[in-house]
Amino acid sequence: MSEQHDEGYDEWIDAIDRGEGYALECSNGHGSLPPRRLCPECGDADLEKRALPDSGTLDTYTTIHVATPAFTEDAPYTVAIADFGLARLTGQLRGVEDPEVGMRLAVGVEERKTEDEPLLVFRPA
Amino acid sequence: MTGVRIAGTGHTHFGQFPERTGRDLFAEASAGAIEGAGVEREDIEALFYGNFMGELAEDQGHQGPLMAEMAGVRAPATRFESACASSGVAVREAVKNIRNGEADAILVGGAERMTNLGTAGATKALSIAADELFEIRAGMNFPGAYALMAQAYFSEYGGDREDLAHIAVKNHENALENESAQYQRAITVEDVLEAPPVAEPLGLYDACPITDGASAMVLVSDDFAEREGIDAPVSITGTGQGSDRMALADREYLARTPAATAAAEEAYADAGIGSDDIEVAEVHDCFTIAEVLAIESLGFFEPGEGIGAARAGETTRDGSIPINLSGGLKAKGHPVGATGTSQIVELASVLSGEHVNSDAVPDARIGLTHNAGGTVASTTVHILEVRS
Ligand SMILES: [Zn+2]
């Protein structure tokens, strides 16, 4: 793990790792991810943590072959965007040979090869 | 409110010049613009300059005054950074300053040195236009982001890699005779389909190259042009800018670019025209799918119909609305900070009859440029018109 602490984000990804992932919801029902002081849609400052559902759905994905230096050992790998209701998450998709848009996915935190940093990972739910 | 005219333009060759400094690239482009305009350097009242990755490529921040020095201009100088839309934003601010009477003559342009970083280094540098916490840490990079948009587009509207390949083929063909272009060579649909994958469904030939280069213009007020006897037939008559949520995942639509629509609507209203009036356009085709999203967002095609436009010949040089007669980012190259001004330099040349591809649109009087940053979280649109 890097020495740098990113307040708000680090606590959030730790919570995902424990299976206690959350999004923020404003009083008008808009979702967002931390750190936030205001709802990015309406500016409401009343943000509450809401548990993410156990699974989301696959919206889009790509298998990346040409990586940045931080991911060269991981390539090829698949990046996906999945819809978890209040928020969409961006992570890597593992354990799926032929992804299908709409398939149900669970989210967790796993290791990656190139660097010792936490990685958001989707697997079939 | 005064009009704004393009008095002179300058452009380096776009290509791989890893040994050339960013400052030398901009020195060449700015000299071309100032000499082409026939404006005295002491009459230039500001430099607005676009650059994205100077800190990463050359350990060089604070490039405004440096580039003014290289251009021989002693005037307030400011660098603009909006990822790949950096010089588009610089142009917009120059237009606003001239219109509101702050200045009569402004040097505007941009430069980027990239190939000295190598492919992995440049890919990393480009990736920082995305959201660091939520996208970069997931391994998303610039090709990956557009691949996510392409896959979302295919899911929502249909289309396939072959449709996209026709865009690459078209833009390479347009660049064949363009001396400024990085690639002056034809490719085939098969070449595109058989190229190694970069981020599926996008392959190497769906992507613009990594490019070194610079571009510049001198913009002047109508009064200044008249007073100084400057021959400047092309005016910038509309400007617009749009922003969107930073991360792709936070957008309502993964296969649309509403920031471009907002920028276009503002620019059309500013110029008093509509999308139907545009006869030729330079759009930000950093990847083939980006051209599709652009021509739909700008109102040239309905959502879902842009994908087939190149294949059907609607956007080729003989089509109803030729797109990227310069070769676009795809074949002309994409030195990020230089691209926004380069698009306007090329389009002004097309409209004034001086471009190698002007004969494709001999009667065109109104054109548009679309310059996008990141996954289109920033967009500027400009309208150019030939004024008699
Ligand atoms: Zn809200």
UniProtKB/TrEMBL annotation, chain A:
SUPFAM superfamilies: Nucleic acid-binding proteins. InterPro entries: ChsH2_C, NA-bd_OB-fold, Thioester_dehydratase-like. Pfam families: OB_ChsH2_C. Residues 50-107 form the ChsH2 C-terminal OB-fold domain. This is ChsH2 C-terminal OB-fold domain-containing protein.
From TrEMBL, chain B:
InterPro entries: Thiolase, Thiolase-like, Thiolase_C_2, Thiolase_N. Gene3D superfamilies: 3.40.47.10. GO terms for biological process: isoprenoid biosynthetic process. This is 3-ketoacyl-CoA thiolase. Keywords: Acyltransferase, Isoprene biosynthesis, Transferase. GO terms for molecular function: acetyl-CoA C-acyltransferase activity. Residues 240-385 form the Thiolase C-terminal domain. The lineage of its organism: Archaea, Methanobacteriati, Methanobacteriota, Stenosarchaea group, Halobacteria.
